[in-house]
Write a structure and sequence with these properties.
InterPro entries: Acyl-CoA_dehydrogenase, Acyl-CoA_DH_C, Acyl-CoA_Oxase/DH_mid-dom, Acyl-CoA_Oxase/DH_mid-dom_sf, AcylCo_DH-like_C, AcylCoA_DH/ox_N, AcylCoA_DH/ox_N_sf, AcylCoA_DH/oxidase_NM_dom_sf. Keywords: Flavoprotein, Monooxygenase, Oxidoreductase. It comes from Lampropedia puyangensis. Belongs to the HpaH/HsaA monooxygenase family. This protein has 433 residues and is of the alpha+beta class. It folds into three domains: 123 residues, Orthogonal Bundle (Butyryl-Coa Dehydrogenase, subunit A, domain 1), CATH 1.10.540.10; 98 residues, Butyryl-CoA Dehydrogenase, subunit A, domain 2 (Beta Barrel), CATH 2.40.110.10; 162 residues, Butyryl-CoA Dehydrogenase, subunit A, domain 3. The chain contains 14 helices and eight strands. It has a four-stranded mixed beta sheet, covered by helices on one side. A four-stranded antiparallel beta sheet has the order 2-3-7-6, with no helix packed on it. A hairpin with a 2-residue loop joins strand 2 and strand 3. Helix 8 runs antiparallel to helix 10. The radius of gyration is 22 Å and the shape is globular. The two termini are 42 Å apart.
Length: 433
């Protein structure tokens, strides 16, 4: 019988018959990434080498069609692999999130020459980082960053924040408005003159994701790298959010694995415990079991939701507009229905793990606190507090999930009490850290 690690580890069957052969290509890399994760966390070592190794191995080209040199992975296959990578180090998943979204944009682009050119770059290992989100008094749905023509040349100026993965990227996909108000997206090389990514992310979680500031000071832009900010997959917001949820599940699996290992290795036990060895203490085993159950259950949710996004992708490829509209609405709903519970279970697990261990488990070198810090940070994107309301509004009133999320300042005259389900924003709230 062929070995199936997904099943043997108790995580359930993978998303496809070929999943094990696909995953085995990368599991050695995942193991290496996991082995050095605590050192990176405690010493604040950015995972440049880890991200580059994944790109060189083809992980960042998983969704590129086989005929273009990629693996042609399905969305469920991709998200299951992101769970496995997230178990190794959630920072690394977050660092390539924008790149994965860029690839989805290529897959759905109708510009064949553009697609072929960038598919080749992605397969060669090029990485693309984000340049969309801005902080401060920015109007919702607008960029303060400007793309203008001066003496026949295109020039980019502005400042972005939540530039997740920019320090690891070769290119940055930057959103800007022109002088006439047109919204553009431009690709600039990360090391181009005037592009200044900063290592200034100081959030308490996801510390190694390169999610800080990037300045663009009189950056010359190749006209061939300018496009209108309108080419987005129908499942754009669902995709980005599901990356967060897959990352959280990976954290849940890491919580389960590291706690079980720590319990197994403990030699000291409490006099008021239930066994001479902690590993035989029924109450401790119950705690560890709950941690594992949380990881298992949330993983099942994410893989089920990934199928809903795959249906949107398939409808788009078939050119079936009614089916596409319906599939997209359901995918956004499934994301809303999933988000609160996934984060609730993993956030709880990240605190509960200490109930299975002694006070020594709080020592800084173990970095067990990273799990709560990281998942709590992830849960702040596309705030989960709104999702149950969205699901409830659908159940009671048939109201679809909002078409797009945006963040920024709203003029009081323009403020509304409920999301506008018909408008497209320049950036979902969560396409950041």
């Amino acid at each position: 019988m062929t070995s199936n690690l997904q099943i043997e580890l108790g995580w359930g069957e993978g998303p496809s018959e070929r999943y094990e052969s696909l995953a085995n290509r990368f599991r050695g890399l995942f193991s290496d990434i996991r082995a050095s994760a605590v050192e990176r966390e405690t010493q604040r070592i950015l995972p440049h080498d880890q991200v580059r190794t994944l790109a060189k191995a083809g992980f960042t080209a998983l969704r590129v069609p086989i005929e273009f040199g990629g693996s042609g992975a399905t969305l469920p296959e991709l998200f299951n692999l992101l769970i496995e990578l997230g178990e190794a180090d959630s920072n690394v998943v977050q660092a390539i999130r924008a790149h994965l979204g860029f690839v989805e944009g290529l897959l759905n682009s109708k510009r064949t020459a553009w697609r072929a050119h960038w598919f080749a770059r992605v397969v060669a290992g090029d990485l693309v980082g984000p340049g969309r989100s801005e902080t401060g008094e920015v109007t919702q749905g607008q960029y303060a960053t400007r793309l203008v023509q001066r003496a026949g040349a295109w020039i980019l100026n502005g400042t972005k924040f939540y530039s997740t993965g920019a320090l690891y990227a070769d290119w940055i996909d930057v959103g800007a408005h022109g002088e006439d108000g047109t919204a553009y997206v431009v690709l600039v090389q990360r090391d181009a003159v005037g592009v200044e990514p900063q290592d200034d992310w100081n959030g308490f979680g996801q510390r190694l994701t390169s999610s800080g500031t990037t300045h663009y000071r009189n950056v010359a832009v190749n006209p061939e790298h300018i496009r209108l900010d309108e080419e987005r997959p129908a499942y754009y917001q669902a995709f980005y959010q599901l990356v967060h949820l897959a990352t959280a599940v990976g954290i849940g699996r890491a919580i389960s694995r590291e706690t079980a290992q720590a319990v197994r290795e403990r030699t000291r036990s409490f006099s008021n415990g239930n066994a001479a060895r902690v590993r035989d203490d029924a109450q401790i085993l119950e705690v560890v079991g709950k941690l594992r159950s949380s990881a298992y259950s949330t993983g099942a949710i994410v893989l089920h939701t990934a199928k809903s996004i795959e249906r949107v992708w398939q409808a788009a490829q078939a050119g079936d507009a009614p089916a596409l509209q319906q599939a997209r609405a359901i995918a956004d709903l499934e994301i809303a229905q999933s988000q609160d519970l996934v984060f609730e279970l993993i956030i709880d697990a990240a605190g509960r793990l200490f109930d299975a261990l002694g006070a020594s488990s709080t020592l800084t070198p173990l970095a067990l606190d990273r799990f709560w810090r990281n998942v709590r940070t992830l849960a702040t994107h596309n705030p989960k507090i709104y999702k149950n309301r969205i699901a409830g509004d659908f159940a009671v009133n048939g109201t679809p999930a909002p078409d797009q999320w945006k963040i920024g300042v709203v003029n009081s005259a323009e403020a509304v009490s409920t999301p506008d389900a018909t408008t497209h924003a320049t950036e979902p709230v969560g396409a950041i850290v």
